[in-house]
Amino acid sequence: MAVTIVAFIIGALLFFQILKEQGETITIRFSKGDGITAGKTAIRYQGLQIGQVKRVYFVDNLKEVEVQAEINLKPKVFYANRLNFG
């Protein structure tokens, strides 16, 4: 019985860790979707990749494209001693 409870607790912790690591899903609407590919197109902000397009579909009688993207804004840490200048 105790082993079952411990296994359940470990499984629940792993599940919540996975949920915590996933980014926020946003929806963006464009008048044109040229070059946007689900699973391949990156979302960038100030030159840094902060997400990726997950789904692309047409809306409003094929007049617009709606894009679902996963955004991950976790800060990236860069160590100055690992950088090379010049």
Automatic annotation (TrEMBL):
Q: Does this entry carry the keyword Cell cycle?
A: no
Chief site of localization: membrane
Q: Which organism is it from?
A: Mannheimia haemolytica
The name under which this protein is listed is Paraquat-inducible protein B
Subcellular localization is given as: Cell inner membrane
Q: Which residues form a coiled coil?
A: none
**UniProt key word Transmembrane:** yes
Q: Please give an example of a GO cellular component term from this record.
A: plasma membrane
Residue ranges occupied by any Mce/MlaD domain in the UniProt entry: 23-77
Keyword list, A-Z: Cell inner membrane, Cell membrane, Membrane, Transmembrane, Transmembrane helix
